[in-house]
Amino acid sequence: TPGPPINFVFEDIRKTSVLCKWEPPLDDGGSEIINYTLEKKDKTKPDSEWIVVTSTLRHCKYSVTKLIEGKEYLFRVRAENRFGPGPPCVSKPLVATLKLLSAVKITVCL
Questions:
Q1: Is the pTM of this model over 0.70?
Q2: Which of 43, 56, 93, 98 has the most crowded Cβ, counting Cβ within 10 A?
């Protein structure tokens, strides 16, 4: 399976949406990356489950909508090849709010 995606960043942070971007894994696991799965989680609830935002991504970016203003979220993305999904790259917490920043690089890939 592939390694985790790298350089996960948030761009265009708004009250109810954010653009998530990342780069392909350094190691594709010996097979072409065919898909990415992006998930989100409510950080304020420790026992909350990861919710799939999309599981049919061919590109390394996705605009997440329907966020709740002021809520703190975690995101994670996994790359998948024909052998299956690899480990996730997990973001640092993001609070949905209007920010005047063009790009915020906040990444933790485990």
A1: yes
A2: 43
